[in-house]
Amino acid sequence: MKKSISVIILFLFIIGCEQNEPGWGKEQVYKVERLTVPIGNGDSGFSEMAPSQTGVTAGNWIGEQEILENQHLMHGSGVALGDVNGDGRIDIYIPRIREHNVLYINKGDWQFEDATTTAGVACKDRYSTGATFADVDGDRDLDLIVTALGGPNSLFINNGDGVFTENILPSFLDRPGSTSSALADVDNDGDLDLYITNYKRLAMRDSLPPPVISFDNTLMELTNNRWIVMPPFNKEYETEVRNNILLRFEMAEVDQFYLNDGKGNFKLIDITQSHFTDENGQSIEEHLRDWGLMAQFRDINNDTHPDIYICNDFESPDRAWINNGDGTFRALPKLALRHTSNSSMAVDFSDLNNDGLQDFFVTDMMSQSHIRQKTQMGTMAPTPLSIGDIDDRPQYMHNTLFLNRGDNTFSEISQFSNTQASEWSWASMFIDVDLDGFEDVLITTGHMYDVQDSDSNQKQKEALAHVRSFDQFKRMMFNYPTLELKNIAFRNRGNLKFETIPNGWGLGLDKDISHGMASADLDNDGDLDIVINRLNQNLGLFRNNTSAKRLAIRLVGNRPNSQAIGAKIILNGGPVRQSREVISGGHYLSANDPLQVFAASDQSMAVEIRWRDGTMTTLDSMKADNLYTIRQINSVPIPVDEKLVEPIFTDVSELLDHSHHEDPFDDFSNQSLLPNRFSQLGPGVAWMDVDEDGDEDIFISGGRGGSFDHFENKDGHSFVPFSIVKNLDQDFTALLSTVDGDGNHGVMAAKTNFESDKPVASFISTYSRKAKGEFESLPNMGVPMSQADVDGDGDLDVFVGGRIIPNQYPKPASSILYINQNGKLVASSNNSSLFSEIGLVSGSVFSDIDNDGDPDLILAMEWGPVTILENINGKFKDVTANMGLSNFKGWWNGVATGDFNEDGLLDIVATNWGVNTKYHFSPAHPRKVYFDDFDNDNILDIVEAHYDDQFNDLVPERGFSCISNAMSFVGEEKKTFLNYAQSSLSDIFGNSLISAPYLEANTLESMVFINNGNGFDPIALPFEAQISTAMHAGVADINGDGHEDIFLSQNFFAVQKETDRNDSGRGLVILGDGKGNFNSLPGHLSGIKIYGEQRGAAFADFNLDNRIDLIVTQNGAQTKLYENTNSEPGLRVKLRGSKFNPWAFGAKIQISYKDGSLGPVREIQSGSGYWSQNSPIQILGIKGEASDLKIQWPDGSKTTEPLNGNKLTVTFTEN
């Protein structure tokens, strides 16, 4: 048995005058109490304490009667923890549904005594849901807030001796369906204000029989698919048409917000009328009748004021409200959160990467089991995927983990971190279980009935016609399978990744239905124990067994905020920097005791406390295994950090005022199981001085129904737009510079055939001021293009990559190499066999990888490796395996080269799908795609599969409905969702898999491959490059420090309906150090903040200031132009090549310094990254005293030019 604290040592600091408080010396800042830490075996986790030992025998029980009356009662109740009688031990309060609530007084040594009657907090004759202990009247004892489904909500004022006086909280509703409560000082007056979330007292399904609330009886079509809800049902429902599907949503209740007068008297505020506005400060136009489950006050934007995050069930959007600093709130900007959970149950906050910023985690209901995932599909409304939608916020049925980017916007990384699934979840809590300095996650799970079970839902739908009474309809609930589950624990590995701990670290040894959860140190040993309110089972008390070093801190704030709610604690000197914020309530139906526990080390530690009032206290020489009680006395103002760092780039997109257009197209009409839409892959972009006036012009390809556009640069200050082709009948994709036989400059564009209604070829079109040309190219979708002088004859040859074969995905497509013969492009006969059915080419670049003076070809492949084709006298040879790249099979999108370690060899950067998606695979277990006409209907079927540990075999990626719609025999043979879910891929397709062709991928990370002269060494790009799909990769010295950097365009929304859009990127600048190391630059420092589907991008110095600027396209949205305003100006180099290669494509340049060192090699390329072309005029950063420029021309000849000034133009001279 653990022992209580035995010794108290008082430390007195004389730092000023403060009023006396009972138990404190006049100037005493803190007390320290030595903790008796149990001797353990090094294992962390929890042990459940038996009711026979603790005396805690109460449970939350409901039965058939309660379920038939109100299904919401199955959502359970919570728990509140706090020291109600001031004896130094934490007591337990349990709200309950059927029976009265219970208060247990902690007598020590895990013994508890029922004091409910004496305390006067039984709350009889109501369905109590949530509870929170808080000092609302500032008298330093804990009062109690109790919420109830159907009300009333009560405030119990502590008389000072653990006996309470009840006051009913006012409400705008007669019987509010209240759930959780949270408190904070929102208006800077020192007292705690109150927010209560409302769900709905009674759902319509429990109020009226199905015929009365049917669609036919409640909805009416006005005109042309415009629908309204008819009175009186418009008070309960709203309707919407999404993707031609008529949907109806039930509205719930508006939450309740109260301001405290400092004495525990609460004034109810109508949030629909005041105190809350949209992100622009305008009145809220939405009804705010959300399905509220819980709210938590946190300082989300780090300005010391408490903000609010509200978890709402069903299609009600989560609400994030930012405090204006005066107790009024505005909505968090839409772009700050790109998507949320669908049925958000609970939220908790933590500083996951110890950067001082608030990150947060929201629970939903996605299962970790493949079987349950496939049987629980189809309960949420479809998310519209309209082209160009950026500021929407779709909802997805899985947990979400939001990482703070540093500018009050967030990347959602749950699938990167392995926290996306935790079964049907309720409460969640960050807590450092193993005391390693990283907060882990505990989650309660389970439900009385699995109402998401698709087979049961189908049976219910079929049986509905035979229902003869309202009671019979309600009893259909009992036909669903039960859903007792094990509670979940995620261990934080310290690298933003988590792992599931077996049996929930002791909280999930047995299956049950767990709801509210709270933490406190129930045995005074300095670690946090757990209490869980379980449905139809005794309350769960779990002792923390951790024996690691700890440091516990309890704050005593100035009255009336006596528990220092809203204060932040930052500890340095432990295993890692750690921070906590003290909150009140704000958990699912529950409230923790505000004691904060940190991982400790043997060395002395220092703590900084930032109080809610904007002052701070610092203490050092803190020792492990102690409890410090720290008082707010003579604290000093928090210093204001006024340092402002200007970003590198400034958004000047208004100079173009261009948006890409893309007509909608049904990619899935012929192949319904396509993984993504291929009609939304563009556009590309190119810089070229087509009018030869000395500045770079812009060309942007267009989508079907849009235009192919040219922007003439007017001295770097403005652009004149001109549409080269309007009303495109197919997508234009990649763009290149071109020159005709007379030396006239122009542009070359690839035109695809994917959206054609009949088989046609792709085309290559050329445009100049004097002529237009066009010729048939590939029979499949030709997309990427690159050009170089591959045969050494002085003109430019062109590669066109085959992306996919329309209606035949993922059969390998053919590509083609065109040899320039006297100005005419002719297919290379020497290379035709190599490029025939080479695969699905997404990106390409010519680059002299082997440093032999001729251009090799590098391809980014979907379902294949980054492929290297070595140029041997104009004939290409696949050397991918010899270069060590053949095992890195991915869904590669773009490819570029640069000398990242400055050894004179060109390295490769390639973009990939990223690891923040539902797709997870590895070299040991690659993901596969089989393709064949499995049902003999003359349509090529697509079957994606991944390895599942439970099956020890491949299982299908797609759900039962989608696969059955594509191949009817699957539905006919499997019949039910459960049969399908329990089947491996071979169980479903049998021997047909043996002969079916397949492709596989084992790598999802965007990578750099460092050229070692004999092959390539792989390096994954930084974390920020992996959390969204990356498309374009561009190489330039962005910050002007003499080292090559990388820009990635990011995001992909054009996914199939079972997949989330990839939206966690904003465009990423990655800075190189010249040694092959990389660091990501946050958006508020780079200046790049692009929230849509970024595609092609390209570098140029468009305003001639010797800084590298950037253009980035978006599919169906605004093209973004960025002027570099804060990097160091570099050296501007313009090479004048031969007549038929006037831009000297294929040349390499390198700065030589007076100390004998060399800068990185830069290659001038045409067609790289993703469908794009950088300016051939180069800006080279300078890192020292430069002496000359080394040039290797496209023909392999070399020259050296002295450097004088910051501009250099060199003309090629034939030998």
Helical stretch tally: 15
* Mean pLDDT rating: 94
Largest sheet: spatial strand order? 1-2-45-38-42
- Would you tell me the structural class of the helices and strands? mainly beta
Biggest sheet features: 5 strands, mixed
List low-confidence stretches: 1-18
Note the beta-strand portion: 35-45%
Binned, the helix content reads under 10%
Q: Care to count the β-strands?
A: 86
* Distance, first to last CA: 91 Å
Global geometry: globular
Radius of gyration, taken over Cα atoms and rounded to an integer in Å: 33 Å
Describe the model.
- There is one protein chain.
- A hairpin with a 7-residue loop joins strand 49 and strand 50.
- By secondary structure, the protein is mainly beta.
- Strands 1-2-45-38-42 form a five-stranded mixed sheet, with no helix packed on it.
- The longest helix is centred in the middle third of the chain and has 10 residues.
- 7% of the residues lie in helices and 37% in strands.
- It contains 15 helices and 86 strands.
- Helix 10 packs across helix 11.
- The N terminus is likely disordered.
